[in-house]
């Protein structure tokens, strides 16, 4: 028996329950982890409320994408790991099938990584969602390189901060977009070359001023909605806008004439494009591990909660007040 976090109906953070449950031994090719820390993601609150791309069909449901801990047991056929190894988890394709919110959890071996010993449990649990998401968009798809200008919206989120670090790592110029100037200094200290407050400045004009006549080649956005218009207006000919979320409740316009006139690419993107492709996943792991080992990539933790305080943790997750990653210690 182990303590797990589940919900029996859709709703607010209060529907999350800590319960005792049997955790089966790891199956063939699986690794069982004694969890030390969890990373929290917006996708988990969306699943809890019924607004996620996955649908709960069998109740109660577990949830959670990211965990770090010690190997507790190995399924048949697992090689390269041993009981007691410190590991962390690349997000699986389904948080319903592979829920991380538990004291003991099973994951497919190819998603379990021995992370650098310099990382704390909290940092390890905060690593893979943010860095693989940003890597897949910026490096794998957009081929971000030295000299490029990239606009990163929702820049104070964990993925936004990861994108800033990755842009710096490859020599690109990251422009952080945030709602107000309240987080301006923190974003500059996190590596942003420029910070634009979308609710306080003319976003299109400010981006044009920063990027100059060549424009912005890459935009990385999880918001959608009306912001599409100024973002695409500031883009360079042949530029690419990668959309990885839908945080805006407003309709997203399609800027047809701007897209045609500049030959722009507007592309939807999910992290699972990377994690379900063995070659691309191996490249992502190598890139992230190199960055962690060199210090170019370092998870920024906003706040840590205890396992018993998961309801409070989800309330804070939905407050949009955090700067970086929220984690839960087990």
UniProtKB/TrEMBL annotation:
Gene3D superfamilies: Medium-chain alcohol dehydrogenases, catalytic domain (3.90.180.10), NAD(P)-binding Rossmann-like Domain (3.40.50.720)
One Pfam family here: ADH_zinc_N
PANTHER family linked to this entry: QUINONE OXIDOREDUCTASE PIG3-RELATED, ZINC-CONTAINING ALCOHOL DEHYDROGENASE
Limits of the Enoyl reductase (ER) domain: 11-328
Keywords assigned by UniProt, alphabetized: NADP, Oxidoreductase
Source organism of the structure: Nitrospirillum amazonense
Residues annotated as signal peptide: none
Entry keyword annotation includes Oxidoreductase: yes
SMART domains, sorted: PKS_ER (SM00829)
Lineage: Bacteria, Pseudomonadati, Pseudomonadota, Alphaproteobacteria, Rhodospirillales
Name this polypeptide is given: NADPH:quinone reductase-like Zn-dependent oxidoreductase
CDD domains: MDR2
GO MF entries: NADPH binding; oxidoreductase activity, acting on NAD(P)H
Domain of life: Bacteria
